[in-house]
Amino acid sequence: MDLQICKIYLQQAIQNTMKNHFFRTFGIIVAAAAASFYIEGYSQPLADMHVARFNDNKTPYPVYAGIFATIPRWNNNELRNLGQNFDALYGSYGDIDSLKANIVKQENPTFQFIRYIGNWSVSDRHGSAIRDIELNHSDDIMYYRMANLATTLDNTDTTFIIDDKLGIISASTAADSALASYRQGNTWKTVVCIKIDNEMMRLNSASGNTLTVTRGFRQTKPEKHKTGSAIICPVYSNGLNSGRLGYRHAEAGLWRWQIILNSIIDEYKRTGGGIWIDIIVGNLSVTAMNGQAVPTDRVWNVQQNRPYLPDERTKYAGIGVKMMQDSFKAKFGHYPVIWGNNMMFPTSLTDQRIGLLLQTPEKPRPLDGFAQENAFGSYGTGGNSGKEYYEVKYNEWLKNIQSIMFMGEQKLSARPLSLDGGIDNAKLALEPTTFRHRVQLFAYTSYLMAVKVEPDDRIFTAIGFTPIVGSSNTNCTLLVEPFLQWEIGRPTETRLSGNVLGYKLPGSKIFMRRFENGVVFVNPSDSTTESISLNQLNIKQTLYHPDQNNSIIKTIVLPPKNGMILTYNPQ
Questions:
Q1: What is the dihedral of CA 100, 105, 108, 110, to 10 degrees?
Q2: For residues 377 and 441, what is the distance between their CA atoms, to the nearest angstrom?
């Protein structure tokens, strides 16, 4: 499907969405949110979408691997190890081609390669893309309401007053004759554009609340504008004072989805796999020209010339996803595999992001998976990566566990990640063995508190880990933590997400869940070490501790942010 056909497709879909599903008032839209997102009977993956099953490889529960910044030597042993223990590999995993992918799939025929693609922004790293987006794709990027007109603006006025502005406003630094931004040495000379109604203007100077502009810029027509009209400008991926220049793609913009579609096709030809779309929807990395975050209520719907309504951006993303799905199927005869990031941790089907995992009028086919980053710990969130690892606080842990439980109940393809999905994977790879073991065991045991196994052994939620150990692309290896292979069996108790505290031991900070072949304990507290005698728990079988040479355990001592798996048989 070429670009023009895609554009027509997307425009028609958006028009139909506006006509059929957007209501006149804010109150009606909020009231109708559940009906808009959720169609009864279609809240789970479709028949041709992969769902993991209990004990389908050496790790009884579905585990996927994430790799960024540090890539192992993909020799045959590493590839076989990958296929035997993981259900999928996502990230920037290097030079895996069809031959290497086939080695993995010999061990696990349903294994999925999911290559990372960001593309939430276009920046100076993308060569001539800045000029292209400014001149040819200005309606495909995201905008925010920078200010309002304080007075009426005639079609010949070039200076005017604004009010309700957001942050400090920067004017163009490029030559007066320039239509687009350009580099001068190591410095960007920018053309800063603002838009009022349908008219584009070049911002030539900004002094306090007074702006001077060139009217009717880039082939738009000078018009009269009313007092109070919104003045919008592009969302930048970095502030203009950062020394870099980039624009944030909009969910309603065709250009982003067309670029991603090309990436899906490339990965399918390379490995038979799919892609992981970072920031598929949401207000992450939405930056004003002065570098501050843009509030959600100031992000602007250019197509409708108004702020976005609560669930509108997710609907636009769904339209883009459907375009990619349909285009791919037309070419290859089946649908592509598409994962998204970041769903956060919803517990209701009316949540804006969860609509991407449901069948909706805009997108009948759900995503194949939707990540939940930083489920149990992180080096930093939202791009604010740090040096020190920290676990989530207790209340956040509780909320995250409840969300993962909810996803399993609804049969939704949630993909919680033990930490974030980016470069911090490389940091964990450098941590001492005992540290990595502790934080990953805490994440795994936390996941086991939440996982739901269906009567037919299907498991809709899978947990992601960073299995890489080492410091570079020449000496790092793929390490599978032994506890991932322990045969603890299926859960023998499963509580509803609204009763997550039912797993909490009375008078203790410890959570406990029983399985066919053992018992799982987690202490998610922020500061309290807990000790408990197993005689108090009415466990009649002998319990072995695989992490301590299968010693028999009668009392457990569990520091905060630690997990423990005890089994009825030595592992």
A1: 130
A2: 12
